[in-house]
Design brief:
The structure holds two protein chains of two kinds. Chain A is α/β, with parallel strands linked by helices. Chain A is 19% helix and 30% strand. Chain A has helices at 43-48, 88-95, 132-144, 164-170, 189-199, 212-222; strands at 21-32, 35-41, 54-59, 63-73, 78-84, 101-108, 123-128, 149-155, 173-178, 185-186, 205-209, 229-232, 262-264, 276-278, 284-286. Chain B has a single domain (11-63, 75-206, 228-310), classed as TIM Barrel (Alpha-Beta Barrel), CATH 3.20.20.70. Chain B is built from ten helices and 16 strands. Classes of the chains: A alpha/beta, B alpha/beta. Chains A and B meet through strand 4 and strand 6 of A and helix 1, strand 5, helix 2, helix 9 and helix 10 of B.
């Protein structure tokens, strides 16, 4: 027969996504009372990662969990992610010390797409609760490309505001919101975003990450403006490479780990966005709009 | 979708696995894309002739801790998912959503006893599946693998399932990944005698991958199932051995199929159809339509009227003793 043509590989960039690179943790910083930031040297990931992409973090002897990349230092090959202590795996991660070995595979998924031109207006970056890591990376990336960036940062209380100093250092404007009013305005990151929009709504794009209830309210708010919204979704992921199907969100087979986790909010209209997510067994659970917790 | 990935109907590719009629011989293997209805529907949209669900049991299972997958050289991989599933009652809506689209669905069932296998199979049958595939052979759930290598135990499970489902639905048996071919034939014969309608050969092979820096297994469960091109020669021989065992039962080949040529090798060895899983990683979901198109090219090249003419058509040879 006609000889086998060379098999064309899946266009998804999976080269580093299939096997973990095991490295010592270089630095651990307590960034909020319940969140630590971890840095590792992982040159391949640092070189290729874009904001919004994630890594599967292997905590040997415990589990492997998806974590958004919160920063890279390209020249040094350093990758950073931030983990809140929310479950057994993240508790094990929090017990680790600098020099302990963990594995990273990635970068995985599709990141944020930035407007080509920096002249179409500033970028609005919205981070709620545990949603700060990819937004902090996106803010730094955009500022480096010459964009003006305005940030809406929210948390339940002042001490939980994640990467506040980084945002204030990088962005041109930052509006803080806390549920208890201990810092900034009393309310959520969506209220802070509305504040930005009230001042001047001429944004070129909006990038957001946070609890899904917050993302749906943000999508609702932005439906009144001609501002394209991209959101980073969180779903229970098992393989991270689009094979197992655990993170599928619609009847077309859209996989959060491969086609996401960043999606154009318009695409999400015909999906489980804001309605359902799956637990570790694959069972569908309704999303509680008031749920501010982060899984992982 | 480009023209290359579009599923073009080709009447030469229609196959019958016992009473189950499919548009083409490519089937999505269990455990791939099968958690949600959308994943199964997408495989069909990309050309799969049928889809096998995620293996589902009576009670919910969270599965093994990660890492659950690891890629190996040459497009092979290992997994130790640990059969996460929400339990049959919560999985039924996913199956119904796929059946509603008139997609042939094969329900993959798991049980901790023959009775539990039968209960799950009965629910699958009621949900409208075209066949039930018994997962008696998952290599990273130790008890299942041991079950699948025991002909008497397999016979007990299959006869209970066949009895309880009252022959409403054909029962396929997925054989364990093993190079113990005489044992596989014993298990297959026991399954057939107990009423199995088809054999699926093979499941992933029990295997180990190690990280030298962490000095640990690369999978959370330690042992995982090897899949992809690395196991193709083993599964191919299993299909050939089963075909030559004089059983007259349809065989579905599975293991390392990336191209139409791979699929044709399985057909020549004795398979009626093939399942594809790991290949989705290498060629994307469009692998189903691509493999079908490639089989079609072969049929044209050799002027073969129908794909079924290929089954078992490898030249006979004597095994040296």
């Amino acid at each position: 027969m006609t000889p086998n043509k060379t098999v064309k590989k899946n266009p998804a960039k999976l080269a580093h996504g299939l096997r973990p690179f095991v490295k010592p943790i270089q630095q651990i910083r307590q960034v909020t009372p319940r969140t630590k930031a971890f840095t590792l040297k992982a040159t391949n990931i640092a070189r290729t990662a874009v904001p919004g992409q994630f890594v599967m973090v292997w905590i040997p002897g415990f589990d492997e969990i998806p974590m958004s990349i919160s920063a890279v230092q390209n020249s040094l090959g350093i990758v950073e992610f931030a983990a809140a202590k929310v479950g057994e795996a993240t508790a094990a991660l929090h017990r680790m010390k600098e020099g302990d070995l963990i594995g990273l595979r990635g970068p995985l998924g599709q990141g944020f797409k930035f407007p080509r031109s920096i002249d179409k207006g500033p970028l609005l970056c919205v981070a709620g609760g545990c949603g700060s890591p990819p937004i902090a990376f996106a803010t730094e990336w955009a500022v480096r490309k010459g964009h003006e960036v305005h940030v809406a940062l929210g948390a339940t209380t002042r001490s939980d505001l994640l990467f506040q100093e980084r945002f204030e250092e990088q962005a041109q404007k930052v509006i803080i919101a806390t549920d208890d009013g201990s810092d900034g305005i009393q309310g959520t990151s969506v209220n802070a975003a509305a504040f930005h929009l009230d001042i001047d709504p001429r944004y070129s794009a909006c990038l957001a990450c946070g609890p899904e209830g917050m993302l749906t309210s943000l999508a609702e708010l932005l439906s009144n403006y001609p501002i394209p919204l991209q959101v980073s979704l969180e779903r229970y992921m098992k393989c991270g490479i689009g094979l197992c199907g655990h993170c599928i969100i619609d009847n077309h087979g859209t996989r959060v780990c491969l086609e996401g986790p960043v999606f154009d909010a318009k695409i999400l209209r015909q999906t489980d966005f804001g309605q359902w997510k799956r637990d570790s067994t694959g069972k569908r659970l309704p999303i509680d709009a008031s749920d501010e917790s982060c899984e992982g | 979708m480009t023209s290359e990935t579009e599923a073009k109907p080709d009447s030469r590719l229609k196959v019958k696995i016992g009473t189950v009629e499919l548009e083409n011989p490519t089937i999505l293997a269990s455990g791939v894309l099968g958690v949600a209805a959308g994943g199964l529907i997408s495989a069909s949209n990309f050309g799969a002739g049928a889809v096998v669900t995620k293996t589902v049991g009576w009670k919910p299972r969270s599965g093994h801790p990660g890492p659950r997958v690891v890629g190996l050289h040459g497009d092979s991989m290992m997994n130790a998912m640990g059969i996460p599933n929400p339990g049959i009652r919560d999985y039924i809506p996913e199956i119904k959503a796929v059946v509603k689209q008139e997609i042939p669905v094969i329900g993959s069932a798991l049980g901790t006893s023959p009775k539990e296998f039968a209960r799950v199979a009965t629910h699958l049958a009621k949900a409208g599946v075209s066949a039930v595939e018994l997962n008696i052979s998952c290599p990273h759930v130790g008890s299942l693998y041991l079950l699948g290598m025991d002909p008497d135990a397999v016979a007990e499970v299959v006869s209970e399932v066949v009895e309880q489902t009252e022959k409403q639905v054909p029962i396929w048996v997925k054989l364990p990944g093993s190079t113990d071919y005489p044992r596989l034939i014993q298990v297959a014969k026991a399954a057939q005698t107990a009423g199995a309608a088809a054999l699926v050969a093979l499941n992933t092979l029990p295997a180990l991958a190690i990280d030298v820096d962490a000095r640990r297994p690369l999978l959370g469960a330690g042992i995982g199932g090897l899949s992809g091109p690395a196991i193709k020669p083993i599964a191919l021989r299993a299909v050939w051995e089963l075909h030559n065992a004089g059983m007259n039962i349809p065989i579905i080949g599975v293991g390392g199929i990336l191209t139409g040529q791979d699929a044709i090798e399985y057909l020549l060895a004795g398979a009626t159809a093939v399942e594809i899983g790991t290949g989705v990683l290498t060629r994307g979901r469009a692998i189903f339509s691509k493999v079908c198109n490639e089989i079609g090219v072969y049929l044209t090249e050799y002027n073969i009227k129908h794909v079924s003419e290929l089954t078992g058509q490898m030249a006979k040879f004597e095994v040296n003793s």
